[in-house]
Write a sequence for this structure.
């Protein structure tokens, strides 16, 4: 089977132009599909469900650069939301908690029923997210909620990851992390 490359784009987009130029320079044959920004196609929504933005490069039915996207999504979302969840009170704290849970649900929907984010292969996105697992108990304690109740597939995935020697050896003990939080909050001026 020949490689099928599809580029979803919008004609004046500088990002789309960059992608077209790169494909042309590498002499990669591709099917360009113009998109309507105000009436997004089912293919666009399927291939870029979070941001729903262009361009999207699809190789043999799968969007490219997804691992980098999800790693970046995790790195940008988690710290800010956690700070809001811990640093705020009342309604603002509830909003932070809700945003954190929604972020996890978004990541969980990407995981789906796969063993790891890359399918059967443990990879970049797994590594990006599993580092936060040792913080989950603290998130739950100080946010007063249950991640497992909200996102059971994320917890099942994390438990699978913990069976990997590299993960089990590297993650700090979650109890120690939870005990550290009051000190961190004080040093950060949150409490």
């Amino acid at each position: 089977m020949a490689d099928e490359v599809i580029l979803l784009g919008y004609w004046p987009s500088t990002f789309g132009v960059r992608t077209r130029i790169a494909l042309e320079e590498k002499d990669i044959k591709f099917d360009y599909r113009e998109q309507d920004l105000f009436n997004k196609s089912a293919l666009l929504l399927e291939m870029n469900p979070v941001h729903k933005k262009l361009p999207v490069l699809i190789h043999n039915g799968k969007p490219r650069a997804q691992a980098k996207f999800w790693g970046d999504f995790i790195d940008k979302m988690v710290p800010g939301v956690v700070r809001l969840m811990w640093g705020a009170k009342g309604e603002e704290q509830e909003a932070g908690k809700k945003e954190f849970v929604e972020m996890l649900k978004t990541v969980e929907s990407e995981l789906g029923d796969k063993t790891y984010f890359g399918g059967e292969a443990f990879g970049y996105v797994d590594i990006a997210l599993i580092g936060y697992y040792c913080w989950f108990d603290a998130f739950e304690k100080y946010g007063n909620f249950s991640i497992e109740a909200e996102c059971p597939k994320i917890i099942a995935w994390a438990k699978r990851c913990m069976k990997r020697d590299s993960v089990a050896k590297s993650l700090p003990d979650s109890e120690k992390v939870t005990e550290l939080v009051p000190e961190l909050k004080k040093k950060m001026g949150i409490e």
